[in-house]
């Protein structure tokens, strides 16, 4: 059994224009979490974002949405972690994952950032890769582009992403109890979902890596 989760971070860009974009899948997870656990994210300047505290399985869990834009997410995460003396192994970062198809969600502990600038900045700010990651699949389109990750998914894609979010939220009691391996097993073993994955129909030309463009990434 590992340390229980004490801080959950949803990565994304601030502003209504980004709220429902693929790149804000982590922030969508946090919003759904607040709805299910009667939380309310509020601006908190000392943490460079919006924060709240909820109770899961009888334990306090801090929530954080950095409002620094994606590339500077680590500033907010490290500020809250230091303030509440939370170790990297007690942090869960939720974010969009190009390398997973829509309809797929995975838990992972440690490892690299996979080209995701928000995760990269969190690693740098914490000085550690030992935090947990909730990777919400958004799919990789033909010809990667910033327009894709900053675009709004189709209704079918949005429904699939929300389904993934609901699956992950159902496993939070295991995560706060430190039963990360049990949560991984439950989340990753679902053969009925294999047929429901959606191939994205994104931009097909002028390919660029969306993680190489601008602070909003």
Average pLDDT metric: 88
The CATH top-level class label: Alpha Beta
Radius of gyration: 16 Å
The CATH architecture category equals 3-Layer(aba) Sandwich
Biggest sheet record: 7 strands, mixed
Distance between the termini: 34 Å
What order do the helices and strands follow?
A: EHEEEHEEHEHHHH
Structural class: alpha/beta
Looking at the structure, the CATH topology is Rossmann fold
**Helix run count:** 7
Key terms for this structure?
217 residues, alpha/beta, Rossmann fold, 7-stranded mixed β-sheet
How would you describe this structure to a colleague?
By secondary structure, this protein is an alpha/beta fold. The chain has one domain (7-212): 3-Layer(aba) Sandwich (Rossmann fold), CATH 3.40.50.1470. Helices cover 31% and strands 19% of the residues. The chain is built from 7 helices and 7 strands. It has a 7-stranded mixed β-sheet, sandwiched between helices. Strand 3 (49-56) and strand 4 form a beta hairpin. Helix 1 crosses helix 5 (155-170) and helix 2 runs parallel beside helix 3. The longest helix has 16 residues, at 155-170. The radius of gyration is 16 Å and the shape is globular. The termini are far apart. Residues 202-215 have low confidence and may be disordered.
């Amino acid at each position: 059994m590992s340390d229980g989760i004490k801080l959950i971070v949803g990565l994304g860009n601030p502003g209504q224009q980004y709220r429902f974009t693929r790149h804000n899948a982590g922030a969508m997870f946090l919003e759904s979490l607040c709805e299910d656990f009667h939380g309310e994210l509020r601006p908190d300047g000392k943490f460079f974002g919006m924060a709240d505290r909820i109770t899961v399985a009888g334990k306090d869990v801090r929530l954080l949405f950095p409002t620094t834009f994606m590339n500077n997410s680590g500033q907010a995460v490290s500020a809250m972690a230091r303030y509440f003396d939370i170790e990297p192994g007690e942090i869960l970062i939720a974010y969009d994952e190009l390398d997973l198809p829509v309809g797929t969600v995975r838990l992972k502990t440690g490892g690299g950032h996979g080209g995701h600038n928000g995760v990269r900045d969190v690693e740098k700010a914490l000085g550690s890769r030992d935090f947990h990651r909730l990777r919400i699949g958004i799919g990789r389109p033909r010809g990667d582009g910033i327009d894709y990750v900053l675009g709004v998914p189709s209704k079918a894609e949005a429904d699939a992403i929300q389904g993934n979010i609901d699956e992950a939220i159902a496993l939070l009691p295991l995560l706060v109890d430190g039963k990360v391996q049990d949560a991984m097993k439950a989340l990753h073993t679902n053969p009925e979902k294999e047929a429901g994955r959606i191939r994205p129909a994104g931009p097909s030309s002028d390919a660029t890596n969306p993680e190489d463009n601008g602070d909003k990434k």
